[in-house]
Amino acid sequence: xxxxxxxxxxxxxxxxxxxxxxxxxxxxxxxxxxxxxxxxxxxxxxxxxxxxxxxxxxxxxxxxxxxxxxxxxxxxxxxxxxxxxxxxxxxxxxxxxxxxxxxxxxxxxxxxxxxxxxxxxxxxxxxxxxxxxxxxxxxxxxxxxxxxxxxxxxxxxxxxxxxxxxxxxxxxxxxxxxxxxxxxxxxxxxxxxxxxxxxxxxxxxxxxxxxxxxxxxxxxxxxxxxxxxxxxxxxxxxxxxxxxxxxxxxxxxxxxxxxxxxxxxxxxxxxxxxxxxxxxxxxxxxxxxxxxxxxxxxxxxxxxxxxxxxxxxxxxxxxxxxxxxxxxxxxxxxxxxxxxxxxxxxxxxxxxxxxxxxxxxxxxxxxxxxxxxxxxxxxxxxxxxxxxxxxxxxxxxxxxxxxxxxxxxxxxxxxxxxxxxxxxxx
Length: 426
Ligand code: HEM
Fold this sequence. Notes:
Blueprint: H1 22-26, H2 29-38, E1 41-44, E2 49-52, H3 55-63, E3 68-69, H4 98-107, H5 113-117, H6 120-134, E4 139-141, H7 142-147, H8 150-158, H9 166-178, H10 184-208, H11 216-222, H12 232-264, H13 269-274, H14 279-289, E5 295-300, E6 304-306, E7 309-311, E8 316-320, H15 321-324, H16 375-393, E9 397-398, E10 406-407, E11 418-419, E12 423-425
Parallel strand pairs: 2-8
Antiparallel strand pairs: 1-2, 3-5, 4-12, 5-8, 6-7, 9-12, 10-11
């Protein structure tokens, strides 16, 4: 179906500079709706890219590996993967190549099923330890004291790093995340942190390779697929990626869940307190309503025609998960946050995005070849951390009557969508 024509100067016209403004950072949803309704395939000539915003279009692009790739360079070309990335060589840069498949298949099994279950008691323990540090305070800032502390300590423990080094690991993590932005100074700080972390990891990798060990670092060092293992460089790149992909995202997920339960739907928090399993629904609806990650980048490998528009070969395309998740063609009252929503698949996600209950899932973990490897871990960890906090503190209240809400971070600092601060009182 051809898109509805938008005439210059009329309200539905989109000025691409809107994507860069503070309004979009805070509330992208009005622009998403104009995109979905009037420009489902939007050619942004200012930024030289295309935007896809409807649910089933985002889904279709994710599933179409023949036309959309994540890497803009060829694996066998002269570009050396990892050289310009704050994490070093890592799976995110390898696009749809065989190299991506190899690396993914070596490690993906470590984050699901029994392997994940092995770490569950530790996630309970870390959540309690972090809560103990502030549980006697009348007021506390949830992000600094809780959500930014739990996931990184969990990853550090999973990797089997000495507990005395945890605080150092938290510092590297913060520098790496900031390095993901576009600021030169942040990038340099991120790369310095990465180099320090690599030096720290070198002897550990050497020590654990070839020996049995139940910690994640040993498992990654020794994981083998058809005779192939990760090289020490790849292991270090993967550990750096884990900090951001597994740490910062879950940190922000926990913060967003609490923001919604204290500001958006405090009326539903009582039900959650009575039945902690409902944190699963809070997690799922949070991932739909205002997902931690709103967009993913792709490049076309051939011409693609959608809604009567032709996206040329080698064009940059943004898949707006955040816009697809609010598509009124798929979800009833999409702008309402509802833990009991009946038109959303509430259970654990899967890579195909297709469920037996025939309800659509959220798009917040992507779909297909690059579907989030930590989907089960993020869900488990968020649920455990939130359950412990609610149990330990009774029913915390927001300290401030008015809150600026969830925002994207400034463009020079990296990171994901979340409230910048969340003060709660007991
Ligand atoms: C709520 C928390 C999380 C969110 C919102 C999130 C989001 C995403 C999204 C949208 C993608 C797809 C990328 C694409 O299509 O190009 C992705 C991929 C990935 N995620 Fe997550 N993630 C989360 C937690 C985690 C955790 C806990 C881990 C650690 C195990 C993790 C590891 C990864 C990795 C390694 C990839 C790359 C997969 C590939 O390219 O094959 N994520 N994540």
